[in-house]
Design a protein that fits this description.
The structure holds two protein chains of two kinds. Chain A has three helices and five strands. Chain A is α+β, with helices and mostly antiparallel strands. Chain A has one domain. Chain A has a two-stranded antiparallel ribbon with strand order 2-3. Chain A has a two-stranded antiparallel sheet with strand order 4-5. The radius of gyration of chain B is 27 Å and the shape is elongated. Chain B folds into three domains: 2-80, no CATH class; 95-167, no CATH class; 194-285, Alba-like domain (Translation Initiation Factor IF3, 2-Layer Sandwich), CATH 3.30.110. Classes of the chains: A alpha+beta, B alpha+beta. Strand 4 of chain A pairs antiparallel with strand 4 (86-91) of chain B, so a sheet runs across the interface.
């Protein structure tokens, strides 16, 4: 792809959107989540705290990755991500 | 430092050309892969996003994503649609750590041939343990320790123990032994290996696999410690003539302790299909 558009990006299959802390919060909001007053990620609709890959509540500042197929919040912990790879992406 | 500054300037010049437009512009991969420069750039340009796709890197202005495109992204992440796309919206530092770890995965398979048969938690812990050892060996102690800390946070005491067993050479010893024991019987490997490793982690304080790089005196002292503690059961395994000789040397040096601390000794001599000799020695404390 020489000159892809954002639309091309969202039509592709294997994509990493690499972001800093500020951009991450923007994407969290775009996906229908926000942080509560304690810094935990919540669903913007029902205001319930989201559960991360390691079955725990997660603060925005701990967030390492939001990964597809379902919306998976992964803590900034290599073991969490590596287990996600082993479980969901057969690596 | 000059290097990071020049890399940031190079990325920034691309950014200046597309900022505020819907254009995405390709950047040299080495530029985008410089972790320090990437972080500096992203922190100072809050609308920017670096996109890694099929081995190419692009920069785009996130503020230019339309509502329709945001909906498309939401759909990718919708748990009910079961999208098969692999998408990561990922923190720049974390991306760097993951890339370095992923590079090592193919090599890990040759280091431990059983990895492919392991359930995902054991496979993950061992992959990370192998990676941590490589970092230690490369004198990157701080990074190695962080990997071990991550294992502890994710898997608790059991994860830490398996990692320590790997770092101390016990998993290699066990693997070496099992390769001899199983020979080419892959079906047996698949059905047994996960339970064997879990049991080993549970009982690791008193099960010893003597292997090619085992230090005889180190194992001897550990066994003596078990005997002194009055452990009800101690097992020592060796495969192949050289390792069996080591096991016999160790046993000959503890005969006195076995008798005075009241232990029975049972030996089981087996051979693999390829006729490699195996020796299992079981020490059990006599019931009074």
């Amino acid at each position: 792809m020489d000159n892809p558009t954002w639309s091309d990006i969202f039509s592709s299959n294997d994509v990493s959107l690499i972001v800093g802390k500020q951009q991450m919060e923007g994407f969290v909001n775009d996906l229908g989540n926000e942080k509560d007053e304690s810094g935990f990620l919540i669903d913007s609709n029902d205001k319930k705290r989201v559960i991360s890959q390691d079955e725990d509540e997660i603060k925005l500042k701990e967030l390492g990755s939001i990964s597809s197929g379902s919306k998976i919040f992964i803590k900034d912990n290599l073991a969490s991500y590596a287990e996600f790879l082993a479980q969901k992406r057969s690596l | 430092m000059t290097d990071v500054v020049s890399v940031v300037l190079a990325i920034k010049s691309v950014w200046e050309a597309i900022k505020g437009t819907r254009e995405l512009k390709k950047v040299d991969l080495p530029l985008a892969m410089n972790g320090e420069a990437r972080k500096d750039f992203l922190n100072n340009n809050p609308n920017s996003t670096i996109i890694n796709i099929a081995g190419n890197c692009y920069i785009g202005d996130k503020s230019q994503i339309t509502q329709e495109e945001k909906d498309k992204l939401k759909e990718i992440y919708n748990p009910t649609t079961q999208s098969e796309k692999n998408y990561d919206i990922i923190d720049t530092d974390f991306f760097g750590r993951i890339q370095e770890f992923k590079k090592e995965l193919p090599d890990n398979k040759s280091i431990n041939p059983f990895l492919k048969f392991l359930e995902h938690d054991l496979r993950t812990i061992l992959n990370l343990s192998i990676y941590s050892k490589k970092l230690f060996d490369n004198k990157e102690g701080e990074k190695a320790q962080k990997v071990r800390d991550d294992i502890g946070k994710q898997y608790g005491k059991g994860g830490r123990k398996l990692c320590n067993l790997y770092l101390s050479g016990y998993i290699d010893g066990m693997t070496e032994f099992l390769i001899q024991e199983y020979g080419d019987n892959l079906e047996k490997v698949k059905s047994d290996i996960n339970n064997k490793i879990r049991k080993f982690v549970e009982d690791s304080d008193y099960i010893f696999f003597v292997h090619s790089s085992s230090d005889e005196n180190h194992i001897l002292n550990n066994i003596l410690e078990c005997i002194n503690q009055g452990r009800p059961y101690i097992a020592i395994h060796g495969a192949g003539p050289t390792n069996i000789k080591k096991v016999r040397n160790i046993i000959s040096k503890i005969e006195g302790e076995l008798s005075s601390f009241g232990y029975d000794k049972n030996e089981d001599n087996k051979r693999t299909l390829s006729l490699c000799p195996l020796l299992y020695v079981y020490l059990t404390k006599k019931k009074i």
